[in-house]
Structure formats: structure tokens, C-alpha cells
Amino acid sequence: MKGESGKQNAPEADGCEAATLKEKAYEHELARLHAELVKLQLWVVHKGLKICVVFEGRDGAGKGGVIKAITERVSPRVFRVVALPAPTEREKTQMYVQRYLPHMPAAGEVVIFDRSWYNRAGVERVMEFASMDMVQQFLMHIPMVEKAVVDSGVILLKYWLEVSQEEQRRRLEARITDERKIWKLSPMDLKSFERWYDYSRARDDMFAATDTAWAPWFVVRADDKRRARLNLISHLLSHVPYREIPREKPTLPKRQKPNGYTEPKDQPKLVPELAWPSI
């Protein structure tokens, strides 16, 4: 079931390990889900909905790829991605969640957090940027903050992308050898790889303290990137009630006549057209 549109999403997994999804099948299903996301976008604007989607997970779990899959066919003015840098010296003195609150959605917006206030429960704890007392205070208070967010009318969805040790190793090694991906590999990623079980403990404590009735966590198995993207987008669509807004199909009007217009002789410099090899 998918919101209020009455259409069926992909069937539920049967619990068995599925074969890797082929690219053609993936592209077909992703195109279908992109069309649904556009319908959702129009409904969000029409109804003034406020949606906040939080993405957390281990390094290399594929958060960026999922976010790209969600946003590549919708308007960035409606679907807004927030990926905050390290806090400034001033922000370090603020109430911890303070720097995240200005980015929360207004009416007609979907805000996607590529990592969020849960940095305190994860990377800051594991890397000892925050004391255990600070972490415990965060875990104690954040459910009430999220309750206030939800009570204000925000639809809050929290996703954790889980990846196996073997797949994380493969992806991080690929970042070392692939020149297109070297920017993705930071010293923090290497420490994250080393401290697998510290992250596991931090994740477990985070779930125990913040998996609430009003803001539950949803875990996505992400060893197969394609399946993870389709599963997550389908889940998101099913948790936001929406309908397709009827609209007339537009037709292109006739172009105006030139009325004496001619192309100028002096043109700006053209980009050279190179002889690329055909595939």
C-alpha cells in the first residue's frame, strides 16, 4: 500500500537473502518510484506538509546514494538536503540541537538530513569528541525534542542504513583505488572502520533510547545498494499519505514569428566540440 494513492508498492521481502538486483530491473523500478516522488512533491506543496527525513548509518553504508536516488528527479526547492559541517566555535557553545533547528522544514518542504543531531550518539561518542555524560544527556532529552517536532506537524522519518563488515571493507577499499571516489575517504572513515564494535555499541544504545512510538527508527539492509534504495523509497512513500493531484496535460504553444530578427554575426566563444570515441 502507498499513502492514499491506492497503488501497490513492491512486494514485501520473504526474509530470504535475495540475489543482487540487475541494473535493468533497478532502473525500471526506480523510474516508477521517481514518478511517485513527483506526485508526493506536488501533494506536499498543495497541502503544505512538513516532512523531515533523517539518514544515519555506518560509513560506506550508502547514505549519499540513497539521498541522490530520492532527489534526482524532484525540485531542490521542495526536497532540501542538509549536510552540516563540523560546528564552529560559536556553535559548540550553543544548546546541542540548536544549530539543527533552523533547518527544519516549513510548509511545503521535505528536508533530508545527511547525518543529523544523532552525530552526538554516534561519531562524537566513538571518537570521544563528547563525553559519555554528554551522550547520556543527549539520549535522555532528544526523544522529547522529537516529540515537540512531531507535535508541531512535522512528519519525522529516521532511517539507519546497515552494512556488513565485508561490504564496508569492499566499499572503503574502492574509495582508495578509484580516483572518482577518493574525496569520499576521510581519516574519520578509517577510524570508523577500525572501531566497528564501538559503533555497534553506540548504535544499540541509540536505538534503545530513541526508538519511540512517535519517532521510530527504520533499519535498511544496505549490502545491495540497488535494493536498499528501492526499499527505502517505497517505505518513505508508504509513510506519507498523499494523492495524485489531477491536472491537465499541457501542450506547447506556437512559437512567435521572427518579425525581422536575425542572428548576430559576432558570437561568444564556443566550447570546442571534441571527437569523442563512440561506444
Give me some keywords for this one.
alpha/beta, Rossmann fold, five-stranded parallel β-sheet, 9 helices, 11% strand
Identify the CATH homologous superfamily. P-loop containing nucleotide triphosphate hydrolases
Q: How many E-type strands?
A: 5
**Share in helix:** 40-55%
CATH topology: Rossmann fold
Structural class by secondary-structure content? alpha/beta
Regions with pLDDT < 50 over 5+ consecutive residues? 4-16
Number of separate domains: 1
Model description:
The structure is a single chain. The chain is an alpha/beta fold. Helices cover 40% and strands 11% of the residues. It has 9 helices and 5 strands.
Helices and strands, with pairings:
Blueprint (H helix, E strand, L loop, with lengths): L22 H25 L2 E8 L5 H9 L7 E4 L6 H4 L16 E6 L8 H4 L5 H20 L2 E9 L2 H13 L9 H8 L1 H15 L6 E5 L3 H14 L41
Parallel strand pairs: 1-3, 1-4, 2-3, 4-5
Helix pairs in contact: 1-9, 2-9, 5-8
Short characterization:
The chain has helices spanning 23-47, 63-71, 89-92, 123-126, 132-151, 165-177, 187-194, 196-210, 225-238, and strands spanning 50-57, 79-82, 109-114, 154-162, 217-221. With 279 residues, it is α/β, with parallel strands linked by helices.
